[in-house]
Design a protein that fits this description.
The protein is α/β, with parallel strands linked by helices. The protein is built from 15 helices and 23 strands.
Length: about 550
Amino acid sequence: MSRSKYPEKSLNGMFDYDLIVIGGGSGGLASAKEAAKTKPGAKVACFDFVKPSPNGTTWGLGGTCVNVGCIPKKMMHYTGILGSKFEEANAMGWSEIPKHSKFDWPRLVDNVGSYIKSLNFNYKKALMDARVEYINAYAEFVDQHTVKFTEKGKPERSITSANFVIATGGRPKYPDDVPGAQLGISSDDIFWRKKAPGKTLVVGASYIALECAGFLHEFGYDTTVMVRSILLRGFDQQCAIQIGEVMERKGVRFLPHSVPTRLERQTPDSRITVYYTNSEGKEAELSEEFDTVLWAVGRDAVIKDIGLENTGVKIESGKIVVDDYECTNIPNIFAIGDCIKDRPELTPVAIQAGILLAKRLFKTGTTKMDYTYVPTTVFTPLEYGACGYSQEAAEKLFGRDNIEVFVTRFGILEGASVWLDTIPKPRSSAFIGTNLWARNFLKSNGHEWEDYEPDSFDEEELARKYLKQPCLAKLVCDKTKDNRVVGFHYVGPNAGEITQGFGLSVKLGATKEDFDMLIGIHPTAAEEFTTLNNTLASGEDVMKKGGC
């Protein structure tokens, strides 16, 4: 599409453009397209440029979610789930299906990459159809109304705009205090890497770390997760620990309270030697060799080198400060998505915020973004969906005495009917056995709990029980508001689908009685939320006793 197909002049008459969006991720694209749609004739441009990762990986238009985030992650998660069902299929009568099948990593990467590239093309077409000018260049502010950039093979240019939306997202961190850290890769690389990862160390305890570790283990790779402190900081810890427990029971190895100190490789083709310390061990430094080291220790907002110092935009803790309307301290510069401070770093959040912002900018809407009760899902092998407050956050905000927690641990019909011939032997014990969340919680509140000796019959039978009942349904309620549900938490299959539906009721202010009066669909995992009657305060075992 030639430039003549775009509006020739801005509507404001003072600047070259009415709106320039910096960042072609989900939020930026949504905001740019909505601006052109909501105000026909508005001159809108969208900048997008991907700097290669330290390992040289780059990708097309669409941002993190499409290229190195949600989309490839979900595809690999689904692939892992398929492989894990072979043994169950055999038990249910599919005798020709091998229990252990060879996995083809390059084939998966090619298939995932082909699909992503089709999305890259569709996004470019969508911008053209919306009459949004796509500029594949790195934009840098000169002042609050001007940016400069250089397109490939062309001289540097400067253009002006009445308003700007910064939607530059984030990129994975590499630890700057670990020598040899660049020998590792990040989530920017794993989905495009042609070489199979082999024996892998995942460093970190975030959802990215656990999701990647989960599907790599399901593919059959020897997978270890190095955890400095707790899993899934900011999420409900009962759910987080249960995810760790189930992963550990299935064979993922965890190194708790450990931090890497240096990485070394003798030759380009040799394994990476990881040196690390463990606060619980006596050894000063330990080491182990891995084929791949995957860093998942956080993300940095992409706001360096875009000239914000030339605008006066306020930055705190490495992120842009905005008000309730996504406006910075500079009245014509706005920001959305992962680059702003104290907002959920989720694709749908950025999309919604971008659309509402575009409507407000062009006076076709007044609604501001509501960042409360945002549903989300962690796509570990056994998924975790949440909406609202964790138990810890609710107790802190509303007061522990004002919170009632309803919870049950249960199994689904699909798994209950399959006998486990062998119980996987855990390779670590960070979250299983006496480290169970329920055990710690009950004992800390003066209730009894029966421990068992490692390698005993009781241990195997309990392991079988816990593997057969890996799911969790949990409602955190505000007793001062008729037990309004302020936290919805589900660990189990299809968590995204279940949480998306229940998320609406939580956002609309549903109470525990509303959940009780809802008729469940039988037999499903979701119906557990309609029959919850066990409270944590009671001290009773959260394990469901069985029955229909």
